[in-house]
Amino acid sequence: MTSFEEAETEETVTCLHMTFYHPCQKDKMMFRCLNFCKREQVRADEMAKFGRDSNVCHYNLTDTRVSRIQFSLQFYRKLNSSEFCFEIKNMSKKTKLLVDQTELGYLNKTDLPWKCIICFGDYQILAEVQEGESVDYFETYLHLTEVPILQERCLPSLQPIPENGISSSLFPSQGKSPMETDENES
């Protein structure tokens, strides 16, 4: 057999891509301690921690409004499955963590969707999981963006338009204020 035939099978590695945004990044440089555009290995049995305390968190955010440990990510394999996942846990007593539409209070945790937006304070992080097979470690690959991940969209008023086609919102109410009535009154 040749050395090529004897070589170990190359396994793919699960990679968590995270794109960071904060509106004051240019002025305050809160992401200056993060290694962008470089894959980093994290052992599978370690928890990836994000926060202000560089002694505890590998992913350090230099902002006094960020908790010592803001959130953690745990890599795991689902029971009776070969599927690998991440679990995100809010470690901040003061700030709620929003994972897509799910709000996490202190010590609440949930599975990280394959693609989601994580928000706390003015921070926005797009997280995308690239599947792999390695059981020993996973990788993180951090990116920085100057464009908000969540774009506020101005939606038109959802008030119904009356049949005559004239919306009452087009004309300011002239001195009228809402009246409170009891449903039992006639």
From TrEMBL:
Highest taxon of source: Eukaryota
Localization per Swiss-Prot or TrEMBL: Cytoplasm
Main location: cytoplasm
GO cellular component: cytoplasm
Keyword Cytoplasm in record: yes
Occurrences of domain FHA (ranges): 49-121
Composition skew (Polar residues), residue ranges: 165-176
Renumbered residue ranges of the record's region Disordered: 165-186
Pfam families hit by this protein: FHA
GO annotation (BP), single: innate immune response
InterPro entries documented for this protein: FHA_dom, SMAD_FHA_dom_sf, TIFA
Keywords, comma-separated and alphabetical: Cytoplasm, Immunity, Innate immunity
PANTHER family per UniProt: TRAF-INTERACTING PROTEIN WITH FHA DOMAIN-CONTAINING PROTEIN A, TRAF-INTERACTING PROTEIN WITH FHA DOMAIN-CONTAINING PROTEIN A FAMILY MEMBER
Similarity section: Belongs to the TIFA family.
Protein name according to UniProt: TRAF-interacting protein with FHA domain-containing protein A
Organism of derivation: Haliaeetus albicilla
